[in-house]
Design brief:
The structure holds two protein chains of two kinds. By secondary structure, chain A is mainly α. Helix content of chain A is 77%, strand content 3%. In chain A, strand 1 (3-6) and strand 2 form a beta hairpin. The two termini of chain B are 35 Å apart. Chain B: It comes from Ruegeria conchae.
């Protein structure tokens, strides 16, 4: 009740005195916790390593420059693999995500009590595990190589794509669906005419966005043996070949920049 | 042709939107359904083609009770009833032609419709209808490029290409300016006459209803409180339907409007 009666005039305040006091106390508590945490972190840090860090970083920098340019001849194939892992993984993920999204959306699910929770479980479980961990699991199951990487990226992307897509499905204009229903259309026709045209822009946006993310994710998959340029990175790091490492990082940077440019162009064209 | 018998709709919240409605619409008759917001006008026409499931009662279209039909039978019955919407309800990202042809979805199979391979007779009819409403040159435009009045014309074509016996029209003019509203109402009533169609038109604008239809039904709190000629809508009757208000202006406006129409 922020309106107070005082000498006949009504005074309006944003908060009552009680609410302001509670907020002030909340801030006090926050600051106290921050100071306490700072103390603990500081006590358990080996400060020698921290003071030493600039020197070490400088050391690595001098070893890594200039990059070993002629190593590029060995990177063409791995970066191509990386792009393929990302692209194939995204395509497979989209194929699997579409039915999951339709089962998860409140307005299209056949059963909100039984099927929707299963679809949501698929979305949450695939999303919650990092692709690196999926890759480790899959390498144990199907052996190391590019295929394991593709599957890891695909599984990891299902949840992301399905979640964004089912939210798009839930936000469609219902009267367009009603109008198609009123013509006597069948269930599949209603989907093809009433729903699909409405979610198509969202679908295309999600696809390129996830492809862009997957290129970045697939560059590190090689670290655990799932193919692509990460394999070279891991090998170079193991033998402390810093000039090679720096060249690989440059190649990854360029690949990511190109993918971001492409996805920005595509999304701009759709919207 | 269409007969509602004791049609009742009670929503889950307990609101009774329709209280045992009885209504008889003969072949080829156009009637306007008026009443305040929340009177159950929209619910009533949606109960007829079962976009909203009625709670009890019967909807007889010729000799079939629509409330008893299974999903296949309902699809066939829906083909007989074209529907026109307030916000046009066109599929915005499809072309005008695709929107018109979507009225044939009840007649063609899934793959034909998915691949847009409609029978030539349907395409011919679509062109004829677009020509009739003056939008032939727009056939290839996307629906969201059209103005309100143009969209509603496409909506009318979509309903008519179903070759229906009955039009269910939900607030066709509520999103349109006064001039376009009249043009659309005139178009709907003319087309109904040409094709001998019956129509139920939900409408807010009493004056507009009086101008174009031979029969007015007034709905209040889910009950029919008026059923008769548009000229019978006296201030007392309007008060009964809508509640207390000064109605003289509304009724006078009708006369003026008619003069303007006659002068045009």
């Amino acid at each position: 009740m922020p309106v107070l009666e005082q000498e006949g005039t009504q005074i309006w305040r944003r908060r009552t005195t009680g609410q302001s006091l509670v907020r002030w106390f909340g801030w006090l508590l926050g600051v106290a916790v921050f100071v306490y945490c700072w103390q603990i972190i500081s006590a358990s840090t080996t400060w020698f390593f921290v003071w030493d860090a600039p020197r070490i970083a400088n050391d690595i920098w001098t070893r890594a420059t200039p990059p070993k340019w002629d190593y590029i001849t060995q990177l063409g194939r791995p970066i191509w693999d990386t792009l393929n892992i990302a692209t194939l993984g995204t395509i497979i993920a989209l194929f699997l995500a579409v039915p999951v999204a339709f089962l998860a959306a409140r307005n299209t699910t056949p059963s909100a009590v039984f099927i929707r929770p299963v679809a949501l479980l698929i979305i949450v479980s695939t999303r919650s595990i990092n692709s690196l961990i999926w890759a480790l699991l899959l390498i144990a199951i199907i052996g190391p190589g590019v295929f394991a990487g593709v599957i890891a990226i695909a599984i990891r992307s299902i949840g992301f794509c399905a979640k964004l897509l089912y939210e798009a499905i839930e936000e469609i204009d219902h009267t367009q669906v009603e109008a198609i229903t009123a013509t006597g259309a069948s269930r599949w026709q209603i989907m093809a005419y009433g729903i699909v045209p409405q979610i198509l822009p969202a679908f295309a946006g999600i696809a390129v966005f996830r492809w862009d993310i997957n290129i970045r994710e697939s560059t590190v998959l090689g670290l655990v043996g799932a193919g692509g340029i990460g394999l070279q990175l891991s090998a170079s790091l193991n033998v402390l070949a810093w000039p090679q490492v720096s060249l690989i990082l440059i190649v990854i940077l360029i690949a990511v920049m190109i993918s971001e440019w492409v996805s920005a162009k595509v999304r701009g064209a759709i919207i | 042709m269409l007969r509602l018998q004791e049609l009742t709709k009670t929503y889950k919240t307990g609101d009774q939107a329709l209280k045992a409605i009885n209504l008889d619409v003969p072949k080829g008759q156009v009637l306007a359904l008026i009443g305040p917001s929340g009177a159950g006008k929209s619910t009533m026409i949606r109960c007829i083609n079962r976009l909203v499931e009625p709670t009890s009662g019967a909807v007889m279209l010729d000799d079939t009770d629509l409330t008893k039909l299974g999903s296949g039978g309902l699809r066939k019955a829906r083909r007989e009833m074209g529907m026109i919407f307030q916000e046009y309800a066109l599929v915005e990202r499809l072309t005008v032609m695709e929107n018109v042809l979507s009225g044939r979805l009840g007649y063609v199979g899934f793959w034909r419709s998915f691949l847009r391979r409609y029978p030539q007779s349907d395409v011919d009819e679509a062109f004829r209808l677009l020509d009739r409403v003056g939008l032939l040159h727009m056939a290839d435009k996307r629906a969201d490029e059209l103005s309100g009045g143009q969209r509603q014309r496409v909506g009318i074509c979509r309903a008519l290409i179903q070759n229906p016996k009955l039009l269910l029209v939900d607030e066709p003019t509520a999103s349109l300016d006064p001039k376009t509203s009249r043009q659309i109402m005139r178009l709907i009533t003319e087309l109904c006459q040409e094709r001998g169609l019956a129509a139920i038109i939900n409408i807010h604008d009493v004056a507009l209803a009086q101008m174009f239809v031979p029969r007015v039904v007034g709905l209040r709190f889910g009950e029919i409180v008026y059923d008769g000629l548009p000229t019978g809508l006296t201030p007392d009757k309007l008060t009964e339907i809508y509640g207390e208000e000064d109605w003289e202006a509304t009724i006078e406006k009708v006369d003026e409007d008619e003069e303007i129409e006659a002068a045009e």
